[in-house]
Amino acid sequence: MTRLFNDPAAFADEALEGFTAAHRRWVRPVTGGVVRAGATPAGQVAVVIGGGSGHYPAFSGLVGRGLAHGAAVGNVFASPSARQIHSVAAAAHAGGGVLLMYGNYAGDVLHFGQAAERLAAEGIETRTFAVADDISSAGPDESAKRRGIAGDLPVFKAAAAAAEQGLPLEEVLRVAERAGGRTRSFGIAFSGCTLPGADHPLFTVPEARMAVGLGIHGEPGIGEEPLPTADEAARLLVETLLKELPQDLTGPAGQRAAVILNGLGSVKYEELFVVYRKVAALLGEAGVEIVDPEVGELVTSFDMAGVSLTLTWLDDRLEELWRAPADAPAYRKGALDTPGPDQDGEPVTADGQDTAVPVDNAGPATPAVPAASDASRRAAATVLAALDAVARVVDSHADELGRIDAVAGDGDHGIGMRRGSTAAHRAAAEAHRLGAGAGTVLSRAADAWADKAGGTSGALWGSILRALGTALGDQDTPDARRVAGGVTEASAAVRALGGAEVGDKTMVDVLVPFADALAAATAEGLPLTGAWDRAATTATAAAAGTADLLPRKGRARPHAEKSLGTPDAGAHSLALITRAVHGALLDHH
Amino acid sequence: MTRLFNDPAAFADEALEGFTAAHRRWVRPVTGGVVRAGATPAGQVAVVIGGGSGHYPAFSGLVGRGLAHGAAVGNVFASPSARQIHSVAAAAHAGGGVLLMYGNYAGDVLHFGQAAERLAAEGIETRTFAVADDISSAGPDESAKRRGIAGDLPVFKAAAAAAEQGLPLEEVLRVAERAGGRTRSFGIAFSGCTLPGADHPLFTVPEARMAVGLGIHGEPGIGEEPLPTADEAARLLVETLLKELPQDLTGPAGQRAAVILNGLGSVKYEELFVVYRKVAALLGEAGVEIVDPEVGELVTSFDMAGVSLTLTWLDDRLEELWRAPADAPAYRKGALDTPGPDQDGEPVTADGQDTAVPVDNAGPATPAVPAASDASRRAAATVLAALDAVARVVDSHADELGRIDAVAGDGDHGIGMRRGSTAAHRAAAEAHRLGAGAGTVLSRAADAWADKAGGTSGALWGSILRALGTALGDQDTPDARRVAGGVTEASAAVRALGGAEVGDKTMVDVLVPFADALAAATAEGLPLTGAWDRAATTATAAAAGTADLLPRKGRARPHAEKSLGTPDAGAHSLALITRAVHGALLDHH
After folding, report:
1. Spatial contact of B222 and B138, defined as CB atoms under 8 Å apart
2. What residue ranges of chain B have pLDDT lower than 70?
3. Does A98 touch chain B (CB under 8 A)?
């Protein structure tokens, strides 16, 4: 919802004031809106766009070289008045006439039409063009009734780039008509925005459902369906748009298209990228060549949750205009003044294979494992069983670990530990399958844990497993004292890495007494299982001791000065793991 | 909440795939993240940034010329692993060494530190720098413990611009340290984000409250306060940051600062502009010169509702680096290849007076009113009373009108009518005070209604009042027949403007029979009040008749083909108004 405002009635005016204050390099305020801050060459057609407030970057954010010459800015979701449009257009006019452009809504059609009449009466040659790209708002036989949504941008840009090239008014209008005729959009929504000062959203969609065929002012959609996965959403958007090609195209294969995946406000960038990944692949499969795609927020509706896909089917001329540079507050494109090696302007193609380049986050192919003794390979089986037990206990306690972590941290300890321990077990199993010794199994598990878990716990657990692996090696039989020595080194590594000491209320409070108890028990001659059992009991008691009121150290964790009432999440998970490993040792005894 | 995903565990990887597919002009994927698509000049220091996913544009969106050379991308809200960072840095390295930069979180500190060690061990000179700008996360005496939030951007950019200039590694590091030491941020939040696959947000704030001192991963703030107005929020942000200047500054007056007002995800652009309007004014009052401000989403947390303010206190060198061009997927700055008149690079100053330039949406100063007869001036008093009655009845029915409109439209009919009728009454009162006749009072009211209401209803009501004003004029006594003639002309104007006819289920269905009834009654010789009474009764019946199932016309209103059950909002408001005007006529009889 929209929360930050002063007087709701003044919202649109105050937003425009703040916008111009922040962007005076690009725009200057005039009655009714903004025009470019710099002069327009005499005789150039002025492209003046406009519409209601609440759709930023539309419309004021699209004023600047290569884009609009001015924008008339109405109240929230309301067309600017004819007088406002007239005022902006008169200020933007540079002697070449005016093209008024806007989304196809009844109010805008009326006011821009009235403004055009007034401008013409004053001797300023004026044409109008309403963008009507939303295919859900009327059938193909009534395409003149369609609303304008994110297709505003490519149509505005085509006409403005043509004006920038010095074309006369009639030709700029023809470019707008051609771009408009080849631009289609379709969207889905999950919730409407709440206007400044209102106490409820313009519309709601039941949980786990979506509205199909969004409007950017809270207009109801044309249907409702279950919430899709990102890939299903991409398929719906692409397939719907591919059903209605411009009449002169026999099919999508071999065609080029400008592609805009537009977020309406609170469907955010990472979600848009996940959807775009599939959009690009599907268009690639259909043989469509994607030109300069845009994935982001271009036409919004405050914090509405929705996403739309726009395709502009390009010919050579439209492609040139779509690729042309632009420099507006919210849309910048084109070469810097000192072109570099990445400025070659090569077309970006999408051929399915190419667009969904798999990102090799798993790292390079697993290298062969070093030679190992039979004894170490047998020990590796026990290590693998222990790592299996670790992954299981972490998985079954992940929610609890998250809740404990949320008391003083960001609540993701359980998620990270689950990712790390699962990946560690998988990497260990692969190494074991390849005949690795205990040391290599542990070091592979260490890398996988750190890679997949990320965060602090990932680094610390990576260093624990690595220290253990180094201590065990791939040749010797890992007896109890060697294991205890490895745990002692792991304890030292964690302290060095994390900078924490006993008493700081971290996992070090558990790891140090555990290591000490294990070393003492093995020094007494206890076998590994018995020694580990005793040390694990020590660990559990120590974890409970982290639950009191004292501050805890650690960089960038400033909010821990409170009574936790529960043990530290890292300490608690370590204690759980020591107990689980004991179970695995007993089984493999 | 985050709704569009496939497997939540694959979210970060799939987002990165989609991101690279959309931005191959700028970046190419490598294990662990992305690097610039183009080559870096040999010997240039490589600035490699990184952190968890979920903060776009941080971090992958900030890779490109003038900004980072590579970004290591971790899982959702988790540091990338040392191996991932190492992989990205090795790919980005161009022989000049590597500066690793990241926000100051324990996990990032660990993993980037480990990666630096590995790079150094391979002979790649490497330094690290953690941004710690969030002043709410630790006191000034513990500033090394602070978290990194939106201050990442100016600090990354300073170092990267220095690298682009060819400075050696130690000097690039010194730039990072100087920029980091002079960058402070502070934020407020209203709700946390909901991670992909999670069923609840990371944190919640009670309604009408805000958390002070936000963290970008859902870390709890340092306090809770009542929800502020936009101006109050601006004051809190500015005053908090001005309390902690760099030690070498004796006060803010005369200092220059880069200013970033950052939205966390669902505090949207218009809200940010309303807040920025006051931020700029307050900084101006304090004597701070604002340099190249940024108002938008630079470091996010999915759809978290929050906003933060960042100030980087500039010296000449830091200003040069902040102003330097950049061309990254989500941050572009600098001249196009063909500089135009708006590319002069003049500093943007903020001096209170200057930043909050009042946008003159009210239009030019009211011109003097034309001469009017005494009779017409007396009639103007009745017109004014009628407009007062109109504004009152609309105000008291605005919510009802909105609900009716929401059945088939966007629900803003009540808001628009209230804005229009209020402005019309105010303009009429001013004209009346200046001695205007009935015609001028009506035409001034007409302009104000159209300007302030916007939308379709604004245009139509503007044309109704204008037609009436023209019919009444400023000289003659407006008798019943003249009024009826004006209403008939208003009816014709509305049909011409809106393109609707009787039966289309719009206000025309009411206006036409009203005008006809009024004309018939006055032809019978009824006085105005009696004639108007009869016509208003006709209007009320006609409005009810718009509530049935037939389709209604009108451009870009495709969703009206449904049983409304309630009258059309525009028809209903017209009927209400005719009745209210009758009351005013009776009073002034």
Report:
1. no
2. 220, 335-367, 408-409, 548-565, 589
3. no
